[in-house]
Amino acid sequence: MRSRRAAQLSQRQAALLLLVPFLATYALFLVYPFFRGVWISMHDWNLLAVAFNPDAKEFVGLRNYERVMWGEDIEWGLAAPLWQGLGLIGLALAAVLHRRSRVSRFNAIALGVVSLLLVVLPGFHPGEVGRWYDRRFWPTVGNTVLFVGLTVPGVTISALLLAAGMNRETRAMGILRTLFFLSQVLSVTVVTLIWQIMFSPRQGLIANITEVAGGTPINWLTDQQFAMAAIVIATVWWSLGIAMILFLAGLQDISSEIYEAAALDNARGPRAFWFITLPNLRRTITLVVVLQIILHFQVFGQSHLMTQGGPNDTTQVLVRYIYQTGFRDSELGRASAMAVFLFVIMGGFSVVQFIIGREKDE
Amino acid sequence: MTRGYYWLVTGLSIPAFIWLVPTLWMVSLSFQPNDVLARTTSSTAFGLVPIPFTAENYADLFAFGQTPWWFLNSLIVSTGMTLGVLAVSTTAGYALARLDFPFKRTVIAVCLVGLMVPEQAVFIPLYTMFADFGWHNSYHALILPRMAVPIGVFLMLQFFRAIPHDIEEAARLDGVGWLRIFWYIMLPLARPAMMTLAILTFLYAWNDYLWPLVSAQQRDYYTITLGLASIQSNFAQSEGLGRVMASGVIASLPVVILFLIFQRYVVQAMTAGGSKG
Q: Which CATH number applies to B63-276?
């Protein structure tokens, strides 16, 4: 017995042996690339030049960040009243909701920070003789935010209503759920293939129906007014499933007794939804919204394949701009600076998500 | 069942049908002749019913073009990635959940931070790294980066933590080593969690677009997702609409079948993947 023990690994040795495969890949393919990305962002780094001659890069410190985000003679003021106004409303809302204890301190802070960014960031604009070093960067960020701002409420509201309707364990409901979830498993290229042709003014299903109804088909993907709407519609169709399932899971946790009690008070249907379902689902709703923000901020394929960022850059989004700057213009330094910017934003939302997730566990 | 319930089902069937229409349309177009589609896409019931019918698009797909090859690439990459992720996640998850060693909390914290790093933030440095190694246009270049994502480790960690300690202690008293406990006791217990992780990884691998787009530049190493992107930009002219739609159907078939058979696991996997990064 004793000799057999001696031949065995100690707990520490076993742990080390089991951890090494993961930690090695983690260090090599995630931690190291991350820091290398920050390193690249501080260089003038041309993809092709450096590939031929590793010394062809030049350290420039934070200049790439300046070239991407700043400009000459930049001033601050009420340059975008709509966004900034929205931010002010958000700030006020955060204060009021927190004062009346409708939301936790943490949620109030999160809402406040986002609103503050909305007040501050769009305020920067070039003065009379000024210009942005990169004219396309901030509009691209704006498009990405707009895309998120349209997609997330679209997904959340429709998923919530559908989940509330389907919250019963019957066979018919099971089939309906399957139908709504099915599109979620398709790849982004299948989704864009389907919707490119759906939206086509000559061959598309939507155009065919419009014509039968006597209307003129819209040129969805090449019309500045409709291109963003088109990729939002395709995205809502694609990604409704997860939100719906998360809501259904949240609805399971609300006991039927509450509904029965409410029914005695004549609160059924829409009233029950408003007064019971919504308040009880508050944390799930926050979680779904944050998840969707993280997911959709990384939008790439829809814009890249359906509209190629156009028309006139109206659907150009951040990841596509990073991809183009890096792999079409070969400017890896500037592209990496934008990638770090993306990471900071996503990281912020990930922290929010993590804290909400922990609240749930407790 | 009350009358309200039947109204509800009927009411929900309408949006459910609308939701199904785009997919149905793709399938239906893939069964119509290309010369008809060049004239009109709404022959019968807005093209939702494949009349006139033909299976030629699928025959062409396997006779010409690279779709079968891309399909095979996707199978190899997705299977390889799934096995790789399972291997590193179960081992690390077990060690972090059940074994005691110095700096364990630090290791967990370091891994947790990795959940915050999105693929889009590291794909440029990964590209230059893999270019330095001369790894691009290979299967391992498509597989390795995902193995570093800690989501699987946390899924397994949570599962292993929930297993009662007495099983392990009994085995320890009998003198069974840690590795044997892992292999013969823990892994068989972990089958449901491994299934969830496997499906999550397979779906991710099959549908991933950005990394294959930068890493696989030779058409021979395209995955089906990437290949489909490369033929859809000039769909109508070169290949014929019906054939491109058939490629789309073929590209979706494995994930849809996976979904219909393992629906419960798929939903679990996607919610776990969604709620944890």
A: 1.10.3720.10
Q: What percent of chain B has pLDDT over 90?
A: 61
A272 falls in which pLDDT band (50, 70, 90)? confident
Question: How far away is chain A from the Cα of B4, in angstroms, using its nearest Cα?
Answer: 10
B12 touches chain A (CB under 8 A): yes
Provide, rounded to the nearest whole percent, the portion of chain A with pLDDT above 70.
97
Please tell me the predicted confidence (pLDDT) of residue A207. Answer: 86
Which tens digits make up the pLDDT trace of A160-178? 999 988 888 888 898 999 9
Interface of B with A in 170-229 (CB under 8 A): 175, 177-179, 182, 203, 206-207, 209-210, 213-214, 225-226, 228-229
Q: Is the distance from CB of A248 to CB of A177 less than 8 angstroms?
A: yes
Per-position DSSP letters for chain B, written without gaps between them? --HHHHHHHHHHHHHHHHHHHHHHHHHHHHTS-HHHHHH-S-SSGGGTS--S---HHHHHHHHSSSHHHHHHHHHHHHHHHHHHHHHHHHHHHHHHHH---TTHHHHHHHHHHHTT--HHHHHHHHHHHHHHHT--SSHHHHHHHHHT-THHHHHHHHHHHTS-HHHHHHHHHTT--HHHIIIIIIHHHTHHHHHHHHHHHHHHHHH--HHHHHH--SGGG--HHHHHHHHHTTHHHHT-HHHHHHHHHHHHHHHHHHHHHSHHHHHHHHHHHHHH-
Which residues of chain A make contact with B127, given a CB cutoff of 8 A? 326-327
Max distance between CA atoms of chain A, in angstroms, equals 89
> Which of B23, B49, B120 has the most A C-beta neighbours within 10 Å, making it the best mutation to test the interface with A?
B120
| pLDDT score, position B138 | 93
Taking an 8 Å cut-off on Cβ atoms, the answer to whether A350 and B210 are in contact is no
* Boundaries of every domain in chain B: 3-54, 63-276
Hey, which residues 236-265 in chain B have their CB within 8 Å of chain A?
236, 241, 244-245, 248, 251-252, 255-256, 258-260, 263
pLDDT tens digits for range B30-40: 999 988 887 77
List Cα–Cα distances, A190 to A126, B24, B209, B223, B271, in angstroms.
Answer: 41, 13, 11, 13, 21
What is the ipTM score, two decimals?
A: 0.91
Does the predicted TM-score (pTM) go above 0.90? yes
| DSSP label of A77 | S
Residues of B in contact with A198 (CB under 8 A): 22, 25
A263 vs B: CB within 8 A: no
**Among all residues of chain B, which has the CA nearest to that of A212?**
B46
Considering only CA atoms, which of A155, A74, A78, A178 is closest in space to residue A119? A78
Residues of B within 8 A of A205 (CB-CB) are 21-22, 25, 41-42, 46-47
